[in-house]
Amino acid sequence: MTNMLRNKNKDLEVRKREKEDIKTEIYALSQSISMSAHKARRVLDQIRGRSYQETLMILELMPYRACYPIFKVIYSAAANAKHNMGLNEEYLVIIKATVDEGTTVKKLKPRARGRSYTIKDLLVI
Asked: Tell me: the pLDDT tens digits for 85-98?
């Protein structure tokens, strides 16, 4: 009888450890930002793998235009973690941050003699 209790206790300990090892992923998504994906990736490479507090400080001090939209997305992800999961912001870490090229907006630029040339602008998703 005691052997069975020991085995059950071991199983409970293993289950508790497995629950502690589970990492929750929270995400936020921003779409239709008119900016080059290359410029946004330059900022994301600096913040990937850092803590939430450190990331906010870095984004506030960097001089790039891409920092503000990324700041808003990270702030939104932290708010999602706090509101939906009840997690503390101190323990959040940026694990994955990606930027993809979005749709191409084609505009026409008027030229001489009634002709026109297309201008292609990429949107970041």
From this structure: 888 888 889 888 88
Three-state SS at 120:
strand
The pair of structure tokens assigned to 93 is 């870490």
Three-class DSSP category at 104: strand
Q: Which of 37, 33, 101, 105 is nearest to 73 (CA)?
A: 33
Query: Is residue 124 classed as helix, strand or coil in its secondary structure?
Result: strand
Is 113 within 8 Å of 107 (Cβ atoms)? Answer: no
What is this structure's pTM?
0.71
Distance CA 50, CA 103 (A): 30
Find the radius of gyration of the CA atoms of the chain: 23
